[in-house]
Design brief:
Pathway: Porphyrin-containing compound metabolism; protoporphyrin-IX biosynthesis; protoporphyrin-IX from protoporphyrinogen-IX: step 1/1. The protein is mostly helical. It has helices spanning about 1-40, 45-85, 90-120, 125-150, 155-184.
């Protein structure tokens, strides 16, 4: 059965990969916009108002035209792949991947909430906190890629330790960058 559906499966897989890349690019970029938008608060008027108006427009456009549609198409293509090859649901690694995907979806909707907050001039996180938040998307991406590529060959204990190590390294790098920026 899967042999006759294989060409369709490959199309779904290609679409899935393209739109996951687009989704991740949107998530990475929206967080950069959040950071710059927040830092615009430190600018004198009228520069502050001009920048914030521009960031609101850029955030809305990125979110509505790139990030959210890419997320929806990624999820639909992934669901199509699982429908065409439901044997994937028998693999433990797929359930781990899906758990990380659920985490990434939650992350996406929290970012959507931040878009709305910033539009309403609510700044609940500072630029340092947003830099740390941005790196969580990196951790999700790394975890998903490693689970998919290594599948059952992955020793979960070492994988978890590795992800935590990457997270720690990213946090240290963000802190060092903050210190570097403060010295300038």
């Amino acid at each position: 059965m899967i042999e006759t559906l294989l060409p369709y499966y490959q199309y779904f897989k290609a679409v899935h990969i393209v739109f996951v890349i687009s989704w991740m690019a949107g998530l990475f970029y929206i967080l950069s916009l959040f950071i710059y938008h927040t830092e615009a608060n430190d600018k004198p008027e009228p520069e502050k108002s001009i920048l914030q108006k521009q960031f609101i427009k850029m955030e809305a456009t990125l979110w509505k035209i790139i990030a959210t549609p890419a997320m929806i198409i990624s999820v639909l293509a992934g669901a199509g792949m699982l429908t065409l090859n439901n044997a994937l649901l028998q693999a433990n690694w797929m359930w781990v991947k899906l758990a990380f995907v659920v985490g990434l979806l939650i992350y996406h909707f929290i970012c959507q909430n931040i878009v709305k907050q910033l539009k309403n001039n609510q700044f609940k996180l500072n630029s340092f906190q947003l830099r740390l938040w941005r790196e969580l998307a990196t951790i999700f991406m790394i975890a998903i890629v490693f689970v998919v590529i290594l599948k059952s060959a992955l020793n979960w204990i070492y994988g978890l330790i590795g992800i935590m190590g990457v997270a720690l390294a990213i946090m240290i790098a963000v802190k060092l960058y903050k210190n570097y920026r403060l010295k300038k």
